Amino acid sequence: MQDNDRFTTLGRLEDLPQAYREELTQLNLVPLWPSLRAVLPPHVPARRTQATHWSYRKLRPLLLQAGELTPIEKAERRVLVLANPGHGLEKMQASAAMYLGMQLLLPGEWAPSHRHTPNAVRMVVEGEGAWTTVGGEKCPMSRGDLILTPTGLWHEHGHDGKEPVVWLDVLDLPLVYYMEASYHVDGERQTVVPGRGDRAYARGGLVPTPVFARGDKAYPMLRYPWADARASLLALAADRPELEAVQLTYTNPETGADAQNILGFYALMLRPGQSLRLPARSPAMVFHQIEGRTSVAIGEQSFTIEAADTCCAPGYTAATLKNLSADQPAFVFIADESPLHRKLGVFENRG
Ligand code: GTQ
Fold first, then answer.
1. Is the pTM of this model over 0.90?
2. Does residue 129 belong to any structural domain of this protein?
3. Any residues with Cβ below 6 Å from ligand 1, and which?
């Protein structure tokens, strides 16, 4: 017998005498070997996350119906969660670390101020006139804008417009909950303070330096306007015709690091007709279509994502995105778990 195939079949729980098993249980003890292969499978991790597609056209009427069925006072946050069936819908997870929800705010409504340990971002899907106040900074919400509500910062949502506003929430809630570190605190309506990070940091490479001391805010930029991200992508595509992935990372302009600690956020432009293969990397990913139509092939599965559709891909799986328009660019918002994987030292790119 070779050393390397010696231990392929390990003993089962049923192989052990009943009395012995009961004695272990009494003492809160468990034999490792019957479960060893399940927790440390060979070469590739077990993943509950399934490639899943959520159609905005199909969910929108149900979200608007929630607006009629449940007043904001009874919901606090009126959200339909995009739950991955691989995790069990009741877990409200898109992946191991990511939570996704579609939130509806109707004209005149207010989602009261609170703060919590999980980090959140909002990607605005439709409607004008809503705002989110984060740590006293009032951030207007327009389609495609990314707004951060980082861990511990007060945030509340309001709406002065005339049409329903919908946005996609992306939180690291499943991870923080798993860590037994998830809680919230209710607060009073915030006093809006002057100053807007999206204006102060509006030009890449230029950082405010009052009296030669750099800012001390952990999250200096809270709103990333879509108009700026889109213009940067178009400029990058025109400037660098050889570039395969026309992609931007949402970063903290003071440090250059990812905008938040746990999840990463990116804006991707696919040139007309372009097909882009994303390598198999350890973190799970979420794709949300901002403009255009994209086919997404994830392992054996494939979906077409239209504007405002969302889908997710498990880690360790390559994905191929194809812009279905021959003459218009497609724009995709991406969220992933790579800051988490890199910080923990488990990040892998398997090509
Ligand atoms: O808007 O603060 O989708 O606290 C889940 C939890 C949104 C929010 C969610 C939240 C929020």
1. yes
2. yes
3. 77, 79, 101, 103, 116, 120, 155, 169, 171
